[in-house]
Amino acid sequence: MTSATHTGAATGARVVEGSAAARRILRLSVRSVALLYLLFLLVLPVGMVFVRTFEGGLGPFLAAISRPAFQSAFWLTIQISLITVPVTTALGIVTGLAIVRRRFPGRGLLNALVDLPFALSPVVIGLSLFLVYGADSPIGAFLESVGVRVIFAMPGMLLATIFVCLPFVIREVIPVLREIGTDQEEAAHTLGASGWSTFWRVTLPAIRWGVMYGIILATARSLGEYGAVAIVSGKIAGSTETMTVHVEERYLAFDLVGAYSASIVLATLAIFVLIGMQVYQSGRLRRRRTLEPAAAAGSAVTPGG
Amino acid sequence: MTSAAGARPIEGSGAHSRYDGRGFLGPGIAALYLGLIVLIPLAALLWQSLSGGLDQLAAAITSPQALAAIEVTFASSAVVVLINAVIGTLIAWVLVRDDFPGKAIVNGLIDLPFALPTIVTGLTLATLYGPRSPLGINLAYSAPAIVLALLFVTLPFVVRSVQPVLLELDREMEEAGASLGASSATVIRRIVLPNLVPAILTGCALAFARCIGEFGSVVLISGNVPYRTEVASVYIISQVEADQPGAAAAVSMLLLVTSLAVLTVFDLLRRRLSRHDELA
Questions:
Q1: Cβ pair A305:B260 closer than 8 A
Q2: B 123-152 residues with CB below 8 A of A?
Q3: Chain B partners of A132 at a C-beta cutoff of 8 Å?
């Protein structure tokens, strides 16, 4: 737009009007293509699920979500999230601090391992846990003999969820820790603060935006994980069936209302996550403006599912 | 790695600078955590896939059904990445340079695929583009359905990579180009695009890595017909369920190695193009 006025200052007004009109048409058509793509890929399909769920009124939806199978899947999923998110958050902060602030052998390896879950198919993650803890492996057989069941039980589902959620907090915390440096921590130390109080009063407040953003992403993923959990859970109805597995089970049982209703609950949670992402992203980006844009972009992109 | 230390000149001052003076506690916990959760399972996967020797690994990957699944996966992923490179850049451009009512909502919507559980994505797409499609478009159980599902889940990658770069791009360069008589097309081709290529590559690499492993969004709509619409991840699950962990591990290794290779190659390419030393 401004380039048109620049040209206008130099050359004739007619040329400018012509090119301004051309630019306007270009802009409108590009905008239309982008919006139509999003409409048909995102908005209409998600909207259609809402239409299909509520086309018979609120009754069928309420009936579906009050069924014992749904209730059990819902609370199991919440339980998994409530355990895995705090674990990945606390250990994520410790790991991030270790990678950024310490020098120790194997630091590069740890740093590389952190990204691996993003590069792995959830199905591959599930399979690798299955190979370690399944009944056919020595570790699995041993644990079974002492009465600990991992695969087709809660511990396996927790491990799978922690595996897929592991990078979120770490990847958010690392760049912020690098950016803030150690000046303030050192000042606190010099003034006599203990390690703990320096962490709680200096480090944690400085990284809080990143931590919160990571928690939001990890929560979304822990509620929505399907592939990894599907393999290790054994999909036992009423026992190891999470919400996502419940959606699939209902769909395959031709109970579309059941599948849609559970999806609506998950989609509603996703919308809250989305709002949380917008809120914390603005705070996070404000903190990280000094970073190289490409680096910021790299970690703004976070696979899920 | 070392460039990060540049931001902290007093880094060398040793243990005093650490919030926690207790030696290797932090690194120890970190190593235990990543070792238990990530390293041991992956070692088991590697062990399982190599336990029968390389011949058996190759045989497992080249069995007709596995090969067909790998072909379907890689072909649809390639198509999806190419579409994303174009439409993702276009959407980023609209979000940065264009202005219209509701733009903030559209911007927020881009992250929806990351927030929505993949199985819900699959159900969602099956609803609009399945047998009961109100649009009359039934893609269920076909290759285009796989592409559609992958396009949905990978939408944010290129957009979110390109957006910040476009935001930071110095518009004076473009204005200078235009005032020197360059047409809009020339400005875009010669000035804007070269600056965006590294970010587009980053987005494409992440999207490809995501595509080849994608499971939840594909499984409901693709129909999982062996040799036709069965993707690699579905093949892996079917082999686990058929008690063939060797076959499942072999294809898993292929996916793992491919996605690491793609991420590494694209990252090198991007670094060369942008000549920036990335911190992370």
A1: no
A2: 123-129, 134-135, 148, 151-152
A3: 40-41, 44
Q: Does B204 touch chain A (CB under 8 A)?
A: no
Render the burial of B265-279: b for 16+ CB within 10 Å, e for the rest.
ebbeebeeebeeeeb
Between chains, do B7 and A119 touch, taking CB under 8 Å as contact? no
Find all residues with CB under 8 Å of B12, minimum gap 6, and list them.
none
The pTM (predicted TM-score) of the whole model is 0.86
| d(CA B84, nearest CA chain A) in Å | 11
Q: Which of A171, A202, A87, A114 is nearest to B18 (CA)?
A: A202
Model pLDDT, residue A290: 45
- Interhelix angle A58-65/A256-287, rounded to 10 degrees, is 80
Nearest CB partner across the interface for B278, out of A4, A223, A295: A295
User: CB distance from A302 to chain B under 8 Å?
Assistant: yes
Residue showing tokens 């970690």: A299
Give how far B81 is from chain A: nearest CA, Å.
15
What digits encode the pLDDT tens for the residues B128-176?
998 888 888 888 888 999 999 999 999 999 999 999 999 888 778 888 8
Instruction: Supply the DSSP string of B28-54, one letter for each residue.
Output: HHHHHHHIIIIIHHHHHHHHHHHTTHH
Report CA B222 to chain centroid distance, whole Å. Answer: 20
- Tens digits of pLDDT across chain B (280 residues): 334 433 444 444 444 444 444 467 888 999 999 999 999 999 999 999 998 889 889 999 999 999 999 999 999 999 999 999 999 999 999 999 889 999 999 998 999 998 899 999 999 999 899 888 888 888 888 899 999 999 999 999 999 999 999 988 877 888 888 888 877 778 888 888 888 999 999 999 999 999 999 999 999 988 888 888 999 999 999 999 898 989 999 999 999 999 999 988 988 888 888 764 444 3
Interchain proximity A186–B16, CB inside 8 Å: yes
Q: Which residues contact A149 (CB under 8 A, 6 or more apart)?
A: A143, A155
Of all residues in chain A, the one with the smallest CA distance to B187 is A3
- What pLDDT was estimated at residue B195? 87
Task: Decide if A166 contacts A119 (C-beta within 8 A).
Answer: no
Write the DSSP symbol of residue A240: T
Amino acid identity, position B108: G
Torsion of CA B160, A47, B117, B263, to 10 degrees: -30
- Closest Cα in chain A to B25: A98
Q: Interface pTM (ipTM) of the complex?
A: 0.85
Closest residue, chain B, to A51 (C-alpha): B127
Q: Give the residue ranges of chain A where pLDDT is below 50.
A: 1-10, 290-305
Alpha helices in chain A (DSSP H): 2-10, 13-38, 44-54, 58-65, 68-101, 107-119, 122-133, 138-145, 154-180, 183-190, 195-198, 204-224, 227-233, 243-252, 256-287, 293-300
pLDDT in tens, A70-106: 999 999 999 999 999 999 999 999 999 999 888 888 8
